[in-house]
Design brief:
By secondary structure, this protein is of the alpha/beta class. It is built from twelve helices and 14 strands. Helix content is about 35%, strand content about 25%. The strands form three sheets. The protein has a six-stranded antiparallel sheet.
């Protein structure tokens, strides 16, 4: 077996010396190196921002969307949105183990696993798209992928449908950061109420406790009602996150002027940065877990309005994040049922 670099540098085709995530093209052939895992891919979960952008670009046509996804992977040897740069995660079954992996890891051929690293750094070959769930960003495919020695993955639990598992795995870093940063008695603001937002709201309620206050912002009144029905927030505000002054005023009223101690931005649209900045108290923290975020807009925008806030970038990985995301599904029955209806049709 050929010897591969632990970080996957041997799979980089262009440009020379780049890491796989930053590369413009990867080698996605199936011949295995000694420190790789070959996976028969069943499902890819594209990031919400990327899926929404592509869906809009093709006018909502499912066949055109499938072709666009196939072409991106064919050009790059991986899935990386050509505009946003984001990817997603995948699930599949172990097809083959490199000799080093087989000797060191408790994995066997046939194990069902999900990647904990972005598709932007994962060699991927799509032979064909089988079907697309246009409402959930999930794409069922026939294909193969490579996981490097330093790549992260997790076995999928038996007590959750795989569509639910991959949905929560795709955003597991978000609630894990909330669990790490939120304390009892804090005002927590969550901009966005998709799957990442719902998981963050659960964890914020849990960590802020009865002395804290959790506020969600969603543009759609229907989505606002869903959040309240799930009991995930003390108050939900139907405000457009691209109108920062309106969001600030609504949050000021909801928090009795205290503003947010900790703000989570998980919306999938552009120009939400200043809503987060203006709604957070001085010296408060903002966690951007949104691939549509412009950190130039966030940094310079905060400077322009004299806001001394600490900004955190979500890198998608927090130790233990997969287990925490699965645990949320187990401890919140209403939320689990919502995910099962939404992602597994159960």
């Amino acid at each position: 077996m050929r010897i591969g670099h632990p970080l996957g540098l041997h799979r980089v085709l262009e440009p020379a010396g780049a890491l796989p995530q930053a590369a413009s093209r990867l080698d996605n052939t199936s011949e295995l190196y000694h420190n790789e895992i070959l996976v028969d891919v069943e499902l890819i979960n594209i990031t919400s921002a990327s899926f929404s952008r592509l869906k809009k670009e093709v006018g909502g046509d499912e066949n055109a969307l499938a072709e666009a996804i196939v072409q991106i992977v064919a050009r790059q040897g991986k899935y990386q949105d050509p505009v946003l740069g984001s990817g997603g995660v995948l699930i599949g079954r172990v097809a083959e183990l490199g000799s080093k992996i087989a000797a060191e890891r408790p994995l066997v051929v046939g194990d069902l696993i999900a990647t904990l690293v972005s598709l932007t750094g994962t060699p991927l070959l799509i032979e064909r798209v089988l079907r697309i769930n246009m409402a959930t960003d999930q794409v069922w495919v026939q294909g193969r992928a490579i996981i490097f020695e330093k790549g992260l993955y997790a076995r999928l639990p038996d007590d959750l449908p795989r569509e639910v598992s991959v949905a929560v795995m795709d955003v597991a870093g978000a609630p894990a950061m909330v669990a790490k940063k939120v304390f009892a008695g804090q005002n927590v603001l969550v901009l966005g109420g998709g799957k990442a937002g719902l998981l963050c709201l659960h964890e914020a309620k849990k960590r802020a406790g009865v002395t804290g206050r959790v506020v969600a912002v969603r543009y759609s009144p229907q989505r606002c009602r869903e959040i309240m029905d799930l009991g995930l927030a003390d108050q939900v505000l139907a405000v457009d996150v691209t109108r920062p002054v309106e969001v600030m005023a609504a949050v000021e009223k909801a928090t009795d002027g205290r503003m947010a101690d900790f703000t989570v931005d998980v919306v999938n649209v552009e120009n939400s940065e200043m809503a987060a900045v203006l709604s957070t108290r001085d010296e408060g923290q903002i966690f951007f877990y949104n691939t549509a975020t412009s950190f130039t807009k966030a940094a310079l925008g905060a400077e322009s309005v004299g806001k001394p806030v600490e900004m955190l970038i979500g890198n998608g990985y927090v130790p233990g994040h997969a287990e925490l995301a699965f645990q949320i599904m187990r401890e919140n029955e209403a939320l689990r049922k919502y995910f099962q209806r939404t992602y597994a049709g159960a």
